[in-house]
Amino acid sequence: NDDDSSNNRTSPAAVSTWQNLDTFVWDDDGTTVGSTATTTTTTTTPLNKIPTIRLPDSFPRLASALEPKHDSTTHYLPRFSAMLDYIWYSSAGSTKVTTTVAPMPTVEQLSKHVGMPSVELPSDHVSLVCDLKLGDDG
């Protein structure tokens, strides 16, 4: 799993959300913004060209506070949906217990008004909310 928090010293470019990057287009008709081309074009970026950023060892180790379900999404459009948002905490020397998690809307609820934002969801991202109890490992 590319989203595994045990590999948390790499850039967001390394997570599985970027698997669709090579098919991204700017407009619904497939033309790129600012393009003077008269034919439909697609802008692609091969995954091997996305730079990997290694954080220094002094950077705190981070872990995800939530365990998203396989179908969780925090951003929804008809042609793209993904879990783009996370709640991170520093895992060094602490034990995390997630005590309460706010419910996430389903894809059916998110698609009710085509995409986000909408009249029912005024943001382009779903808010993540949880209560955490952090304790000392020692």
TrEMBL record:
MF (Gene Ontology): 3'-5'-RNA exonuclease activity
UniProt-listed InterPro entries: CCR4/nocturin_mRNA_transcr (IPR050410), Endo/exonu/phosph_ase_sf (IPR036691)
Biological-process GO terms, alphabetical: nuclear-transcribed mRNA catabolic process, deadenylation-dependent decay
Superkingdom field: Eukaryota
CC annotations in GO: mitochondrion
Name listed for the protein in its UniProt record: Endonuclease/exonuclease/phosphatase domain-containing protein
